[in-house]
Every structure is written in structure tokens, then in C-alpha cells.
């Protein structure tokens, strides 16, 4: 792991080694929530939060069987 953190947030000064982590952090300041649930109107800043939310809808199965679909 490198200690170099070239991506610095101009709003709060937090720094990141990875541009993707910086962009994800920037959504905190902009209010942008790019991940939208197609079953309800809820939106998320992080893809991981969206993936955790999606199985909450009744009648949906969170996993796909590779044998039978």
C-alpha cells in the first residue's frame, strides 16, 4: 500500500490514494446520489448501499441461481 494520497478534497481537506474513492467521497459534498432503486424512489451515494437496499423489496430474491435462474 502506498502512502501517497494525491487526491485531496477542496471542501474538507480529506485525501485519497485512489481517484474512485475521492469521487465517491465528493458525493457527500455535492449531495449527488447516482445509484437509484428501480423499485422505489430511493437513491444512494454508494453502490454498496444500493446493493444492501435492493433485497428489501418483497417477493424479490437477492441471489440468482446459476442453474435455474
What does this molecule look like?
This protein has 69 residues and is α+β, with helices and mostly antiparallel strands. Helix content is 28%, strand content 12%. The chain folds into 2 domains: 1-30, Double Stranded RNA Binding Domain, CATH 3.30.160; 33-61. The strands form 2 sheets. It has a two-stranded antiparallel ribbon. Strands 3-4 form a two-stranded antiparallel ribbon. It is elongated. This is ZN256 protein. Its main location: nucleus.
Write the layout of secondary structure elements.
Layout: E1 7-8, E2 15-16, H1 19-30, E3 35-36, E4 43-44, H2 47-53
Antiparallel strand pairs: 1-2, 3-4
Keywords: Metal-binding, Nucleus, Repeat, Transcription, Transcription regulation, Zinc, Zinc-finger
Protein name: ZN256 protein
GO molecular function: DNA-binding transcription factor activity, RNA polymerase II-specific; RNA polymerase II cis-regulatory region sequence-specific DNA binding; zinc ion binding
Structural features:
two-stranded antiparallel ribbon, Double Stranded RNA Binding Domain, 69 residues, repeat, two-stranded antiparallel sheet, transcription, alpha+beta, 4 strands, nucleus, 2 domains
Uncertain runs with pLDDT below 50, 5 residues or more? none
What is the tally of beta strands? 4
Residues in helices, as a percent range: 25-40%
Q: How many alpha or pi helices?
A: 2
The number of domains: 2
The geometry reads as elongated
Subcellular location: Nucleus
Protein name: ZN256 protein
GO molecular function, one term: zinc ion binding
Keywords: Metal-binding, Nucleus, Repeat, Transcription, Transcription regulation, Zinc, Zinc-finger
